[in-house]
Amino acid sequence: MPGPVFAYHLEPARTPEAGLLAAMAREQVESGLRASWDAARIAWHIRHPDSVVLAARAGTGIAGFAIMRYGDDSAHLNLLAVAPSHRRRGIARRLMNWLEGTALTAGTFTIGLELRAGNHPHGTRPAQRPGRTRRERAAALSATGADHPSGSTR
User: Fold this and answer.
1) Can you give 30-94 as a three-state secondary structure string?
2) pTM (predicted TM-score)
3) Of 36, 109, 120, 121, which has the highest C-beta tally within 10 A?
4) How far apart are CA 154 and CA 152, in angstroms?
């Protein structure tokens, strides 16, 4: 059984790990979809100066990872995945806090992302989570497509 969240440490992923991250993306994010995040695409982000591929490490393994691409005025979260055996330990939150802090330090105050329609932990939609401001709830609804006439994600 994996340890508590403090047993994980965050650091940039390395190019040789791109294949492992691509496999995690296929299993954890792209399940049921056409795979688009192969090792070459992830390696490109690892090497690109405007991208961060951040890994949550548990010993010598990778428990989760996130890919964020930074632009002049906004950033975009491309992928976020945590292995099932490491979930519910705050890893995704730590990855997001690190990436968000980096964006804020760079003066970027807008972060875009997409969610799959059924990807809401604990059966709640992101907009309904406690502690969200009205603006954060509106942004979460927009991200999920709930404010879109079709109700689909965009």
Assistant:
1) CCCCCCCCCHHHHHHHHHCCCEEEEEEEECCEEEEEEEEEECCCCEEEEEEEECHHHCCCCHHHH
2) 0.74
3) 120
4) 6
- Size of the chain, expressed as the number of residues it contains: 154
C-alpha 35, offset from chain centre: 16
Nearest Cα neighbor of 22 from 11, 34, 38 is: 38
Question: 10 - beta bridge partners?
Answer: 56
User: Which tokens go with 88?
Assistant: 């519910």
How far apart (Å, rounded) are the C-alpha atoms in residues 141 and 153? 10
Three-state DSSP class for residue 16: helix
pLDDT in the model for residue 106:
87
